Amino acid sequence: MAEAGNWCLIESDPGVFTELISGMGVHGVQMEEVWSLDSESMERLKPVYGLIFLFKWQQGHSATAEPTQPDGGNDHIFFAQQVIHNACATQAILSILLNRPDIDLGPELSNFKEFTADFSPDMKGLAISNSDLIRSVHNSFARSDPFVNEMHDPNAGKDEDVYHFIAYLPIHGALYELDGLSQGPVNLGPCDEDHWTDQANEAIQQRMARYGDTELHFSLMALTRDRLDTYQEQLDEIDALMLSLPDDAPERRQFNSNRMEIEHHMQLEQEKRSRWHRENTLRKHNFIPMIYQLLHTLAEKKQLDPLITEAVDKGKKRNAAKQ
């Protein structure tokens, strides 16, 4: 078995997660930030394959309910216990991907799922930690910063907040909470495949209620179908309907209006993908050599000391204004 190696911290961001999923060979899905779980918002995102919830971890605040026992019908669930520091986001993503048969996992992740099917939860966690594919894609988002050991939490050992990711998704007619720090999957009760997010909302609200009113550090993302694929299918459907109509049919005006609206949404989605790609590229780039060269050049031209003096003076004036 390969060495588990080190796992870097990655930013909680839909663009990061979408590129991470694509890097593992999965097709046709993306991550979306969720600001509300109301019916209207969820309708716009359908199909939603699963939710990933970020919260501040506290000792004793584990599962929403007691994990169901293996003999309670969990054999059909991919559940892995977390054995890797810094990888709870990737593990929460895998909890959704590997439990949704309607997602195209690609050959490598499909083989991984088949290979680990009969493993115990702790062995599945070890298998994730030793997967070259999953680890290399995860670590591709390591910060390129020579002043920080990217493979370790810089706050390790300090009295700092620790954040954790868990997944919610429907599996065989029941809503499950999958938390790698728990002993097993938590069955939250029967659910309707079309309205399971309503029940997930209740579970998330219950978890948030455990914290004080001042705690605002929560985040929610949805794994959805690729929006570009959805929009393209809608355009194809409109085009097919228009082909069956005569040129002077009054319905054409409405179809054209619908088509323009979908094309607008598609353009916005493409612009968002371009922005995500640029942000991910910047995340991975090491700017230290450029900064060093800039400072070196300013020093050679005798321009650095005046800039430092000016910055110090501005800082003093700001501090004086606050007093």
Automatic annotation (TrEMBL):
The protein's Enzyme Commission number: 3.4.19.12
Domain UCH catalytic span(s) in chain numbering: 6-225
Catalyzed reaction equations: Thiol-dependent hydrolysis of ester, thioester, amide, peptide and isopeptide bonds formed by the C-terminal Gly of ubiquitin (a 76-residue protein attached to proteins as an intracellular targeting signal)
Keywords: Hydrolase, Protease, Thiol protease, Ubl conjugation pathway
Presence of keyword Protease: yes
UniProt-listed GO biological process terms: cytoplasm protein quality control by the ubiquitin-proteasome system; protein deneddylation; protein deubiquitination
UniProt superkingdom: Eukaryota
GO molecular function: cysteine-type deubiquitinase activity; deNEDDylase activity
Residues at the site labelled Transition state stabilizer: Q82
List of catalytic residues: C88, H164
GO annotations of cellular component type: cytoplasm
Enzyme class: hydrolase
Positions of the record's site feature: Important for enzyme activity: D179
UniProt xrefs under InterPro entries: Papain-like_cys_pep_sf, Peptidase_C12_UCH, Peptidase_C12_UCH_sf, Ubiquitinyl_hydrolase_UCH37, UCH_C
Family affiliation: Belongs to the peptidase C12 family.
Name of the featured protein: Ubiquitin carboxyl-terminal hydrolase
Species whose genome carries this gene: Hesseltinella vesiculosa
Lineage per the UniProt record: Eukaryota, Fungi, Fungi incertae sedis, Mucoromycota, Mucoromycotina
